[in-house]
Amino acid sequence: MKILLIGEYSNVHWTLAEGLRNLGHTVCVASNGDFWKNYRRDISLIRHSYNTIGGVLYMAKVYSTLPFLRGYDIVQIINPMFLELKAERLHPIYRYLRRNNKKIFMGAFGMDAYWVEYATKKPYNLRYSDFNIGNREITNEYTKGQADDWLETPKSRLNKYIANECNGIIAGMYEYHAAYLEKHAQKLTYIPFPIYSHPENLCNIYSGGRKVRFFIGIQRSRSVYKGTDIMLRALERLKADYPHDCEILRAENIPFKEYQKMIADCDVLLDQLYGYSPGMNALLALSNGKIVVGGAEEECYEILGEKSLRPMINVIPDEEDVYRKMEELLKHKEQIPQMQLDSIKYIERHHSPDKVARQYIKFWETH
């Protein structure tokens, strides 16, 4: 098949493209490289400026690219906001893609109207999320901004239009699948994110005789939203209480290659405090044989059909819980090597790009 993937989140589309190519399909990825992460793509759609002139130049670039985005068997957009344009301007572009290609699918891979509505609806659907802990609403600048952005807005209308009109919707995490399930069950599926395993990095497996290295990556603009503020406080307490047993590796908004190197040097990654399931950052750590402390509720294993492997340390959005779970790991360091081996096994079992690509092909062909 001839396949076009538009947009990028954390290398999902490029990795999927590689899996599809391994199966003999022709694939084009058109994206902005996920901003500063600068992932690989075949057609570059970077917006260099957000002023009026920058918008005009970007629109001209997109419209001059449209003739190259037609004639595909499958088009998949990463999100309803699949280009760096206002929702109103994306409507005609989506309709162009729909008219000039055979099938079009939408990814439910991150923030969108269905997720915000599902997570903010009271009584709350989830025990905790970006927007609630139990019955308590989380209010901060980021979550308020997302609600203002996605509820009863042009973005919301675009999202619902595409969801109703597209051939199918693919969710990459348990949470996003749950958000679409009530209204779009017939055209919805869950497929794990694709990522390569790196068993060669098990040469760095923890063998004792040194401090356990905990790594936390911080995006300054999203620290509160991701829960890294709470995780960092717990981690700093742990370091103060066990100075001879652990050390902290900390990164803030660094290039992806440098970030990869820091992951390779750590033993444990902290990520996604408010999630039920691991995102791409956590999967990257698991693929390198690292332990993840973060969102790993039973729901994320159930949707995969995973009965036995539990390589992640699940924590709830509570500083004491995060601290206690990490303290327990330090007290039982002999378990770390097996957990690291389980991390690689988990990725190979569920997230192999070739295996994930086959799941995509099956869904695309039957919808």
Describe it for me?
- By secondary structure, this protein is α/β, with parallel strands linked by helices.
- It folds into 2 domains: 2-194 and 352-366, Rossmann fold (3-Layer(aba) Sandwich); 199-350, Glycogen Phosphorylase B (Rossmann fold), CATH 3.40.50.
- It is 44% helix and 16% strand.
- It has a 7-stranded parallel beta sheet, with helices on both faces. It has a 5-stranded parallel beta sheet with strand order 11-10-12-13-14, with helices on both faces.
- The longest helix has 15 residues, at 336-350.
Summarize the model shown.
The protein has 15 helices and 14 strands. The protein has helices spanning 12-22, 52-65, 87-99, 113-120, 141-150, 154-165, 174-184, 223-226, 228-241, 256-265, 280-287, 298-302, 319-331, 336-350, 353-366, and strands spanning 2-6, 26-31, 43-44, 74-77, 103-108, 132-133, 136-137, 168-171, 188-190, 212-218, 246-252, 268-271, 291-294, 313-314.
